[in-house]
Amino acid sequence: MRVTVLGGGVIGLSTAWYAARAGHAVELVDRGSPHGGSWVAGGMLAPITEAWPGDEDVLALGVESLELWPEFARSLGVELSPAGTLAVAVDRADVEVLGQLCAYLGRMGRSASRLTGRELRALEPGLGQVRSGLSVPGDVAVDNRALLRALREACAADGVVFAAEPAAEPDVTVIAAGAWSRDLHPLLRDVIRPVKGEILRLSARPGALPPPRHTIRAHVSGRPVYLVPREGGFVLGATQYEAGFDGDATVGGVRDLLRDAEVVWPGIAEYAIAEVAAGFRAGSPDNAPVIKWLEPGVLAATGHHRNGLLLAPVTARRVLALLREGGNSR
User: Fold this and answer.
1) What pLDDT, on the 0 to 100 scale, is given for residue 34?
2) What pLDDT, on the 0 to 100 scale, is given for residue 327?
3) Which of 188, 183, 317 is nearest to 245 (CA)?
């Protein structure tokens, strides 16, 4: 079939690549945006740490996708960071939140080990005065921008045609444009919404403590903050607002991130700010992605919220199955 994929983020690229490898003629239409959720992302592949009561379907889908990631990464020549996640709490209320998460994970049969503040600092000496935390060994991380580059190269190698506007009439259109998907079909208008997030990229200056080995996810006075290691620094995020398509990174958002991160990792004060950016996640009413036929010839693969990178391989595989279903019904 002739397949046009609308959207050049991780979901669109992964879908285009899988479809091309399956023998379809694929065109990927990407107008580009500096605020795309895949570009402005931390790179955490963390279904366990992201889990919360009521999101069981999202957890199950995330775990399914995480199992696909080692082969997905190998095929693309992308490295995964296997150190795992440390979820840490600073005050008593934050300790209670982590306790709820730990109890929930136990009920779901998932692994997470309770650690004292001293045990956490033995693993990551750069941590501040955290009270306690969880070790979540199954979570991994990926350099999101290296992943996007690798996916574009893989798509090109397998014959995907890139365009700014559709050049031909397809048999199937796949809407995978993240938060912008809401404007591409009437059935998505009231389902998909932009969820703004701000993120910082920090680089170590001479004499600064090295970045953590683990991904650090923290609650500081109820506010979430994460530090994801990168070569020579780390990614710091992420605020979350219902602010429409407001692409400005605000002083208040950046201030909150830096303030909270310094509580968790005091050595951050010696780092340089390499980048400040705001991006848009594709929110959905139940935090689960929309992967289905909208009408004959039109598929949706959007609404991944915080889990676009994590869910890329399982989404691409499900879209490919829907394409086969559609082809068999023709």
Assistant:
1) 86
2) 62
3) 183
pLDDT score recorded for residue 328? 59
Query: Across the strands, what pairs with 33?
Result: none
Dist. CA 59–CA 143, nearest whole Å: 22
pTM, two decimals, is 0.95
């970045």: which residue's tokens? Answer: 211
- 303 Cβ contact partners less than 8 Å away, ≥ 6 residues apart: 181, 191, 192, 282, 283, 284, 288, 289, 290
Q: What is the pLDDT of residues 237-288, one digit of tens each?
A: 988 889 899 999 999 999 999 999 999 999 999 999 999 999 999 999 999 9
Identify the H or E element spanning 39.
none
Low-confidence ranges of the chain (pLDDT < 70): 327-330
Task: Identify which of 166, 237, 241, 174 has the alpha carbon closest to the alpha carbon of residue 201.
Answer: 237
Q: In sequence order, which ranges of 202-278 are alpha helices (DSSP H)?
A: 251-264
Q: Are 198 and 185 in contact (CB under 8 A)?
A: no
Strand locations in the chain, DSSP E? 2-6, 25-29, 44-45, 80-81, 85-89, 113-116, 132-136, 140-142, 161-163, 172-175, 193-204, 215-220, 223-230, 233-237, 271-283, 290-295, 298-302
DSSP notation for 287-323: S--EEEEEETTEEEEE--GGGTTTTHHHHHHHHHHHH
- pLDDT at 316 (0 to 100): 98
